[in-house]
Amino acid sequence: MNIVDYPHQNLIKITNMKTFSDLEFKPHPMGVGIQARIAFENGFGASVVKTPYTYGGKDDLYELAVLDSDGHLTYETSVTDDVEGYLTENEVTKLLEQIQKLEIAP
Questions:
Q1: What are phi and psi of 48, to 5 degrees?
Q2: What pTM value is reported for the model?
Q3: By the 8 A CB rule, do 74 and 94 touch?
Q4: pLDDT tens sequence for the chain (106 residues)
Q5: Structurally, how many domains does the chain consist of?
Q6: Residue 93 included in any domain
Q7: Which residues have a Cβ under 8 Å from the Cβ of 57 and sit 6 or more positions away?
Q8: Which range marks the domain in which residue 78 is found?
Q9: 3-state SS of the chain: helix, strand, coil percent to 5?
């Protein structure tokens, strides 16, 4: 994760932050659309999907869900308590950054 700790400022900076461009999309397992799954060093991850059946998929937008350390959907983070839909590439990046800044997953 390349964390730089600033002890007097109580800040943590992640120097290799993953963004939308780091996602590797593959055909969705249901046979329609695309999906990328990414895991982060803090134990969390994300599933980013675009199909005709996802929130925003018909409008060429993405849906994102936060994953726990076992790769399952989790709704118990400060990032979101649900699946986030109707996302642009920039909005996906913003959520990915928030997930990477979460405290280490149990």
A1: -120, 125
A2: 0.84
A3: no
A4: 344 443 443 444 566 899 999 999 999 999 999 999 999 999 999 999 999 999 999 999 999 999 999 999 999 999 999 999 999 999 999 999 999 999 986 6
A5: 1
A6: yes
A7: 33, 49, 50, 51, 63
A8: 17-100
A9: 15, 30, 50
